[in-house]
Design a protein that fits this description.
4-stranded antiparallel sheet, 18 strands, alpha+beta, about 400 residues, about 30% strand, 5-stranded mixed sheet
Length: about 400
Amino acid sequence: MFQETIVQINNGAAVAELSDALRKVVASVRETGETGKSGSITLTLKVAPASKGNADVLLIESQVKTKLPEPERGMTIFYATDNNLLVRNDPKQQMLPLRVVEFDQPRDLREVKTMPYNDDNSKIGDVQSAIAADAALGDPRAIPESPVPVGFYTVVPEHYKIESLEDFMPRPLRIQQKVELHDAVSFIAYVGEFGDREVSRIFFDQEHEQFQVVIDYHAGNGVPGWCEHVAGFAARRSVEFTTWMNQNRKQMTQVDFARFLEDNMPDVVEPNSAELLQVALTFEAKKSVEFSSGVRLNNGQIQFAYDEVVRGAAQKGTLEVPEQFILGIPIHVGGPAYRIPVRFRWRLQEGKAVFWYEVGRPHRFIEDALREIRERIGQETGLDVLAGVAK
């Protein structure tokens, strides 16, 4: 809250005043560094209601005060006279005659040679040059010319660090965002709003059924990008497809199989719902019979023969079940429905029947559904969808 507020006070004047005050304090501390004294900056924010009785509208007034370190000041000795005047010489001390010595010729002055610059050890003997070099340590410098751009560097003295002021700006310098979208429509819309055909790239991870777009990817001419603005979309399996795949090839009792068919009857498109409901109800009604055999008929049905005891008398009967039925369900949420053939399977054990079903080669339907999503994303975004993962 503070960062967003301070940059808006007086249209940014408060931040500018703080920056100027900080610069002055730093300069003053450096000038008086030998004293070891510190400076400080005090920011006071006065918050008051715009009018009496209304605290929803507030007036904010900023005040910046600086305290600079005081330089060491020398002291001068004075003597007080009888009439309270200040003099530099002690009036009670007798003045001694001093002799001035004159030279006919000036004496030779000794010269101390500075250490010359040497390419081997790069030593600098000139004190003024050393001071200038130290002052320029923090200046940004371009790395000498190279066949490829290698950037900039700066030398930071020990115990110092570089701080970014981006947090105090009205907006960031670039977008750094990771977005997770829940359907292909939203993914396409996001790419359309932020994508750039020159640099943005879409990647498709078939193993995890995920799509990812890197908005600020590397440009095709070799210019690197930050790769910090990323959006992803994972194709979610539909409830219908997940339900049928969870029970695929799992054996069930006669009653459990009947109830499963009843619960998921809307997913079956062939045979019609009336015929399938009749099979499920018959299975539930004949749960106490003993099955003797099961044969495949020419009409694609499986006929089960069973023995049933009704009022103490044994009776024989038959039950016909379709050998195959067709599902009409989507593979992914929001995707098109597929015709998926399902084979009916059974086994007789001591007069009891065990039932299950098999979905043949389900991966082919998954691959086709993903291919359709991939083609749609490529067509509507105008970007190539690359197989792989950006790491």
